[in-house]
Amino acid sequence: MRVLIVDDDPGLRQSLGLLLSESGHEVEAEGDATRALARAREERPDLILCDVKMPGMDGLTFLRAYREGGGEALMLMMSAYGNEDAAVAAMREGAYDYLQKPFRPDEVLLTLRKAEERERLRREVATLRATLGAGQVKDEIIAESPAMRRLLELASRVAGHDTTVLITGESGTGKEVLARAIHRMSSRATAPFVAINCAAIPEHLLESELFGHVRGAFTGATADRAGLFEDADGGTLLLDEIGDLPLALQAKLLRVLEEGEIRRVGEGKSRPVDVRLLAATARKLDAARAAGHFRDDLYYRLNVVELVVPPLRERQEDIPALLTHFAQHAAQRLGHPVSLSPAALAFLSHYAWPGNVRELRNAVERAAVLGTGHRLEREDFPLDPRAPRNGTGNGAEPAAGEVNFALKTRVEALERDLVQQALEASGGSRRGAAELLGVSLRTLFYKLRRYRLE
Fold first, then answer.
1. Of 46, 62, 136, 411, which is most buried by a Cβ count within 10 Å?
2. What's this model's pTM, rounded to 2 decimal places?
3. 302 and 418 both lie in a single domain
4. Are 244 and 199 contacting, i.e. CB atoms less than 8 angstroms apart?
5. Residues 6 or more apart from 351 whose CB is under 8 A from it?
6. What is the DSSP letter of 217?
7. What is the pLDDT of residues 126-139, one digit of tens each?
């Protein structure tokens, strides 16, 4: 294991370093806790041996700062006689164990072997959980496009850490779906996942909703009530539309993130909570910060990792699979088969979907409910045919001064559109479309593959 020793006693650092090095461990040592904290974050050791009592930053403060920064190494605290209470307090904060000075070499090595075995098991369990979770996520999130595959790969890497994540993207892109996927792939998967839309709750009720209240805290508070942070204890809390959180609550949220404690409205004492926080927004938080509507310190605390969900017009490869997916869901709810005709599928696959996945899902459900047959046709989807269509860029006409004069690009765009129109005119019949276009069926199949119209 890679071990970092943090102790202000140079003699102990040297003797302990020699003992561990001879036992096959890779050892680094640091006498200053502040410098050790920076090294731990940069070098990512497997285990940290830290003294409880040190000048400047003590061991408990070091542990808290390391964990808040996302550090995951096992922590072994070293305490002199009389400091056992501090060592036990550190264990309550997440330290693995403690050694009481002076300790024997065999005692140190035995404790490290136990810690190494625990770390090995933890990694095996995390790998298994991530593998199972990722399999479930792939079944529920459509990711045919390179952009979505990259996003899911990054989400799976983030899921195993308790750091906060900021999920951004246009309305309707599936930010909450991604947040739930991160929760399912995390070590908190069996604990609660709780979500709240910060824009949907009146400002005067939002604090009580998040942190809870005690009886008599305000008019109508007839009993003690836990808030969403307590409901999500041990699990994950998603604050959707975080950009709409009032400034006063932003300060209180920052305190919760820094201290791991909440205080119910009207209560004088704080309560510890263990919650992994995810935040989502369709707003541009940089603009909100510049306008003074969002705190800089909270922004940086939330934005440890940012995941950007691309709009549907930028992941056209996902649209056919999404259409099929939602048609199957509609069939289950309605109790009869639901499918899409080739003409409907071709049209919908190249619509720009300004409302993103939410608009697509609602369009399929509406057509399934109001359609006259089990197979949905182009006319079952009353979408504006003048709306931008995908296929070349975002499908919109180029703005003045931005005309693309590349002949090959313009010819391919025209050819693709003609093939699509022929398919629609022939009711999805490929043989009929080939006759309309004056080409062989083999040539049409080639064009369909080339322009992803299959």
1. 62
2. 0.59
3. no
4. yes
5. 319, 383, 387, 389, 390
6. S
7. 555 555 444 455 55
Contact assessment for residue 145 and residue 315, using Cβ atoms and an 8 Å cutoff: yes
Cα→Cα distances 144→165, 325, 341, 344, 358, Å: 24, 13, 21, 20, 18
The one-letter amino acid at 401: G
- State whether 6 and 109 are in the same domain: yes
Q: Residue 319: inside a domain, yes or no?
A: yes
Spatial distance between the Cα atoms of 425 and 422, rounded to a whole number of angstroms:
5
One domain, residues 432 and 373: yes
Length of the chain: 454
155 and 282 in one domain?
yes
Identity of the amino acid at 410: R
If asked whether residues 39 and 174 sit together in one domain, one would say no
| Rounded-to-integer distance, Cα 86 and Cα 91, Å | 9
- 51-101 confidence digits (pLDDT tens): 988 888 888 899 888 887 778 888 888 887 666 677 677 777 778 888 888
Write phi, then psi, for 315 (nearest 5 degrees): -140, 60
Distance between CA atoms of residues 151 and 148, nearest Å: 5
Structure tokens belonging to residue 133: 């979770």
